[in-house]
Structure of Putative 4-hydroxy-4-methyl-2-oxoglutarate aldolase:
Amino acid sequence: MFLLGPVPDLLPDALVSRAGGIASSTIGHMRDHGFAHGLAALTGANRAVGTAFTVRLPDLDSTMLHYAVDRIEPGHVLVIDAGGRTDRACAGAMVAFAALHRGAAAIVVDGMATDLPDLVEFGIPVFARGISPRTTRVLGVEGAMNVPVSVAGAAVEPGMLVIADQDGVAFLSAADFEAVADRAEKAQQIEPGVKEAVLAGKLLSELSGAADLVHQKAVHLS
């Protein structure tokens, strides 16, 4: 059986543009869920923001991926739940080329990729668990498109905001992003000043407030 969910509407340009200036790790200072663990940027293009377009694949069958990639719209991030398996790759040169042709912002796969030289040449950001020469097949067994998926520990709904960079991949609803965006921007604006203060002789623990907290509860050992 193949499950076909509707193609998600693209998130507003203003929201995506704003998210483009915020690192996944900055979001990680403010939330504890919605993060993919163990995925790494595989190509020189290591930063992407967009709208989640999800695909779920069973075991060896990549039929749904080949079908789904032709339905991507510019600004979608192709998010593939391949079960986290590390022995076979589902995303290679032709999938990446087709996704890029359709305007995909990136590919995020809880699994492996292949054809690394081609992926680098194409310049499309790809985030995966690694590289494998062994691949999936078009078998026509089953799969799902634009349904809720699990990606490296994160529950992902179609249409969610994806922020992917060298620190990892974060998935947020538009409302959740709006709730933390102001704090995230302010946090990133503070960092240059903190660096200057450290260079000027200030202690990080004093700047962050950690020193006061330790002193309040400190027990000095003789």
